[in-house]
Specification:
This is Family 16 glycoside hydrolase. The chain is mainly β. Helices cover about 10% and strands about 50% of the residues.
Length: about 210
């Protein structure tokens, strides 16, 4: 009898996990550790340890579709790692190099966060800041490392406030300090525009924020 109950519980758990993995997340929904902000008219699916973002494919140069989820918890000075794999750029025609997976941190809202983007021709670390044209300020960029589509990259962010260190596969991209209206604390976000991206195995070494 006990064995039957255990097996039934395992089957129910497996069914819920599979439904969670393949049932698209609607905008505003929370699923485990993740909250789906928007899906770019496409599809967001996942589990606690794996999220796939695939916004609708853009069909013209003046159209962009983005997708974003963030952790339902906030963190203060989080050190974290996550694996990013841009599986395919879905824009019809010629994709832009920044249409890849982005990792966000100290995320407050759609206009306030830090980000790293791993591009086929290099990388960029930026701050989403409405005070700047286009609401974006570049903190560091480089082409010493390139990131071809279809490969996995382990991104690590360490915060020894006010310094933030961003590494990929154990190689430091940059150490940056933001002295203009810095954002300290917030959630961790996953973002893409016009690409299908798989994010895996988020590991956070920080206590939840207030």
């Amino acid at each position: 009898m006990l064995l039957g109950v255990v097996l039934l519980a395992l089957l129910v758990t497996a069914g819920v996990n599979n439904m969670w993995r393949f049932q698209p997340w609607a905008d505003g929904e929370t699923h485990g550790r993740w909250t789906a902000l928007y899906n770019g008219y496409g599809r967001t699916v996942g589990t606690d340890q794996q999220v796939v973002l695939e916004p609708k494919a853009a069909t013209s140069a003046d159209v962009t579709h983005g997708s974003l989820v963030h952790t339902s918890e906030t963190y203060q000075d989080a050190d974290f790692q996550i694996t990013v794999k841009t599986e395919e750029q879905v824009r019809e025609g010629s994709p832009n190099v920044w249409e890849v997976g982005w990792v966000l941190w100290n995320f407050r809202d759609n206009d306030h966060f830090y980000a790293v983007a791993l591009k086929p021709n290099g990388w960029e670390i930026s701050k989403q800041d409405p005070k700047y044209p286009g609401s974006q300020r570049f903190l560091a960029t480089g082409d010493d490392m390139t990131f071809p589509i279809g490969e996995e990259y382990r991104v690590e962010v360490k915060q020894d406030w006010p310094q933030m260190t961003v590494s990929v596969n154990g190689h430091v991209l940059a150490k940056v300090v933001d002295r203009e209206r810095p954002y300290r604390g917030g959630s961790i976000g996953l973002y893409t525009e016009d690409a299908r991206v798989r994010f895996m195995d988020l590991s956070v070494a920080a206590a939840p924020g207030d």
